[in-house]
Amino acid sequence: MRCYAIRGAVPVVRNGAREIVDATRELLERMVEENGIDPEDIVSVTFSATEDLDAIPPARAARDIGWIHTPLLCVREMATQGTMARVVRVMMYVNGDRALTDVRHIYLGAAQALRPDLVGAELAK
C-alpha cells in the first residue's frame, strides 16, 4: 500500500458560508465516490480557496460529513493574473493500491477549465 493524491476543484457561486460548504461538500463526496475511497483511508486533505472566498474555511464541509479525525489544512490560493474567481481546490491524500493512471481527479462545473487535460482524460476512460 502507498499514498497517492487526488485533485479536485469547484467554483463557488458567492462568498457565503453555506455556498462554500455546499460546493466543497459536493466536491469531496464526488472525489470519494468516483475513486471508491473508504474515508478511513484518507490520510489528510489540503484545501485552498481564492482570496475572494473568506466567509468560512472550506474544511468545514469535511467536518460536517464526519471527517473528525482526518487532518485538514486550509490555505489561500496564490493570486495570479487571470485566475478564476471563487474557486475551492482540494488535494486529498489517500492510502491505497490504485495506480496513478486510475485516479479520477474531479473538477466540477466551470472549474473543468482549470485542468482540461485531466477532465479530457476522465472522459476518455
Salient structural properties:
125 residues; 60s Ribosomal Protein L30, Chain: A; alpha/beta; 5 strands; 3 helices
Task: Characterise the protein shown here.
- By secondary structure, this protein is α/β, with parallel strands linked by helices.
- The protein contains 3 helices and 5 strands; from the N terminus they run βαβαβββα.
- It is globular.
- Strand 2, helix 2 and strand 3 (72-76) form a beta-alpha-beta unit.
- Strands 3-2-4-1-5 form a 5-stranded mixed sheet, with helices on one face.
- The chain starts with a strand and ends with a helix.
- The longest helix is centred in the N-terminal third of the chain and has 19 residues, at 17-35.
- The chain has a single domain (2-114), classed as 60s Ribosomal Protein L30, Chain: A (2-Layer Sandwich).
Straight-line distance between termini = 24 Å
CATH-defined topology: 60s Ribosomal Protein L30, Chain: A
User: CATH superfamily assignment?
Assistant: RutC-like
Question: Which class in CATH terms?
Answer: Alpha Beta
Q: Which shape, going by the Cα principal axes? A: globular
Counted up, domains total: 1
Strand percent estimate: 25-35%
